[in-house]
Amino acid sequence: MKNSSGDEAVGGAVTLGLLAAWALHDLEELATVPGWWRRNLPALRERYPGMPEAVWRRAGSVNGREFAVAVGAMAAVVASASVAGRLTGGRSATYQTALHAFGLHGLVHLAQAGLVRGYTPGVATSPLIVVPFTLWARHRLRRAGVLRATRPRDLAVGLGFAGAATVGAHAVARRLTKA
């Protein structure tokens, strides 16, 4: 199916699929993050003594309720980006940035597992869902002629987007769960 500009149309599987893939991935994180931190924080502190104490305190203070609220806040970000992608046939810069962020997020999970030399929350679904979905969606966007050229700067923006959204989601969660 072609759109009005003659490009192949990008459907909901590509755009709204970002939200679905993200939800599947975050189900793993919801199920594992709080318990994983409780079990692994002492060993991580010992293995990485140069890490600032504030990082360890913050990591150890996130409870399951706060993490679930942060995931909900992130859901709003990903849903908004996915809808923007759907409404623009995949052309939305916000959608494409979120897609890059999602794929890079999966690679970060793989790197974390390598540093820890074992399981970390999110690493099981990263090679099964996150990275393959991102590559497939990018392929579909490219084939439809709507994928923006991806430069190193775009990847940095994607990582920045993911980082800012994560910090924002956790700030919202902290505020809501302390009220």
TrEMBL record:
Record carries keyword Transmembrane helix: yes
Keywords annotated in UniProt: Membrane, Transmembrane, Transmembrane helix
Highest taxon in the source lineage: Bacteria
A UniProt-annotated Pfam family: HXXEE
Bilayer-spanning residue ranges: 67-87, 118-135, 155-173
Name of the protein described by the UniProt record: Integral membrane protein
The organism of origin for this protein: Streptomyces coelicolor (strain ATCC BAA-471 / A3(2) / M145)
